[in-house]
Amino acid sequence: MEWFLLALPLLVCAVDARTELVNVAAFKPVSGVRSGLDPAALTDEDDLTWSATATMNDPYLKIDLGSEYLIKNLQLMLDQNAGRNLINSMVRVGSSSVVTQNPVCIPIDDKYAPIMFEKNCNMKGRYIILQKMGPGRTIRANEIRAYVTMEIESTTAAPTTKAPTTVQPK
């Protein structure tokens, strides 16, 4: 009788959990946009498109994230040629459907606001609101991004060789 060793390859999968910042505002619904404009422009991940409110008292643009998130980082992009007068403006984050009951993440009081605001908020909320206080106002903004930390699982396969097995012929 003859004996031999058999070595079989074994596929081992390792799960590597890591975190990544994800924009949860991407493609979410927006309310408060002036009739005739595309509300999706505020969350379409394109800095060249824009949304605006009608001229009114205390106008706001509100993004509904659909669920409550802990917003780590918030970005607001403005058109370099229009809509940069943001005196008495703010970006709010919160879970109340009443706009003014949500806390302020980014206070803005600048006639010549920069093109991009970015702030680490660390605030929980379902809604992100860009609001401008005062009579007869309008808001124009290109993009709002809200980043949260999410665990991303990646599966990697590494072939290994199984320890030799002794096989006895029949």
How would you explain this protein's 3D organization?
The protein is built from no helices and eleven strands. The chain has strands at residues 4-6, 9-23, 30-31, 51-52, 60-77, 89-94, 104-108, 116-132, 140-141, 143-161, 165-167. 0% of the residues lie in helices and 54% in strands. With 170 residues, it is an all-beta fold. The chain has a single domain (20-149), classed as Galactose-binding domain-like (Jelly Rolls).
Write the topology of this structure.
Layout: E1 4-6, E2 9-23, E3 30-31, E4 51-52, E5 60-77, E6 89-94, E7 104-108, E8 116-132, E9 140-141, E10 143-161, E11 165-167
Order of helices and strands: EEEEEEEEEEE
Domains (count): 1
Contiguous low-pLDDT stretches (5 residues minimum) are 3-16, 160-167
Distance between the termini: 9 Å
Q: What is the 3D form?
A: globular
CATH topology: Jelly Rolls
Oligomer: single chain
What helical percentage do the residues reach? under 10%
CATH architecture: Sandwich
Rounded mean pLDDT score: 80
Strand segment count: 11
CATH superfamily grouping = Galactose-binding domain-like
Radius of gyration: 26 Å
